[in-house]
Write a structure and sequence with these properties.
single chain, about 270 residues, alpha/beta, Rossmann fold, Hypothetical Protein, Haloacid Dehalogenase-like Hydrolase, Chain: A, domain 2, eight-stranded mixed beta sheet, 10 helices, disordered C terminus
Length: about 270
């Protein structure tokens, strides 16, 4: 088989929302790399929040973070997009006017409007895991590196958010609550995958991706073989070429075996 490249979402794909990674997933990814294929993280998370030892110790050839706004190969940063300060200033004004809670995500630090988020368990978890790299929004300045944003629009509306921010950002609304990701125009997980494959000279016919949620849809459609987890949202499953078992039922291993990337060589699903 030709050398292939496989991109893995993190939350809901590699681990659950308590950060637990199935043993079968760890072993399957290590076998994938032992077979000579590339394994990449491909997450909506900014690089600043991808630091859990148990995740990185699995072993990956690189990281696509912040929905394509940051790329790392072999531990080296090869691409990063910094949102211009002028746009960030404009965005901050819109957030205040529309009562939107914002998290400004960078490769090194997070800047969070803590008052707007209030008592939020996810924000508190980030505070604990990032330590000194978790900063209040007032620390944000022209030297700050921000790749993307995450916002909570529970005190506003989806329509208002899209009307005020849609000209400047790609907006991905999640199904699990009034939460959206704001990406600079032209960026997505798919755009990050395209950059990686170009650099490594991997043909699109040898690309795979695993995901479970709204921000995975574009990459599942872009790669040759898009795999939705059994626990994925329904619209994500519809965008995939193949639906595997849930992450709790060895979904990663079963799909890699199905496509012949490890272990038993099955017949590939054709588009």
């Amino acid at each position: 088989m030709n050398q292939c490249i496989v991109f893995f979402d993190i939350d809901g794909t590699l681990w659950d929302y308590q950060g637990k990674i199935p043993a079968s997933t760890i072993q399957a990814i290590r076998e994938l790399r032992a077979e000579g294929h590339y394994a990449f993280l491909c997450s909506g998370r900014s690089r600043a929040t991808i630091r859990a030892k148990e995740l990185l110790d699995i072993g990956f050839d690189g990281i696509v973070a912040g929905c394509g706004t940051y790329i790392e190969l072999g531990g080296e940063v090869v691409f990063e997009y910094k949102i211009p300060w002028e746009m960030l200033s404009k965005t901050m004004s819109v957030m205040q006017e529309c009562h939107l809670a914002a998290m400004y995500e960078g490769s090194q630090k997070l800047y969070v409007d803590e008052k707007a988020f209030g008592d939020d368990a996810y924000v508190e978890d980030l505070r604990k895991s990032l330590g000194n790299d978790f900063l209040c929004m007032e620390k944000l300045n022209s030297d700050s590196i921000v790749n993307k944003l995450c916002i909570d629009y529970r005190n506003s509306s989806k329509e208002t958010m899209i009307a005020r921010l849609g000209q400047d950002y790609e907006i991905i609304c999640h199904v699990f609550g009034p939460v959206a990701e704001l990406l600079p125009k032209g960026f997505s997980k798919a755009s990050g995958i395209k950059r990686v494959c170009s650099r490594l000279e991997i043909a699109q016919c040898n690309t795979y991706a695993f995901g479970d949620s709204a921000n995975d849809i574009d990459m599942l459609r872009y790669v040759q073989y898009g795999v939705a987890m059994g626990n994925a949202s329904e619209n994500t499953k519809q965008a995939a070429d193949y639906v595997t078992a849930s992450m709790y039922d060895d979904g990663i291993r079963k799909a890699l075996e199905h496509f012949g990337l490890i272990g038993y060589h099955d017949v590939r699903v054709k588009r």
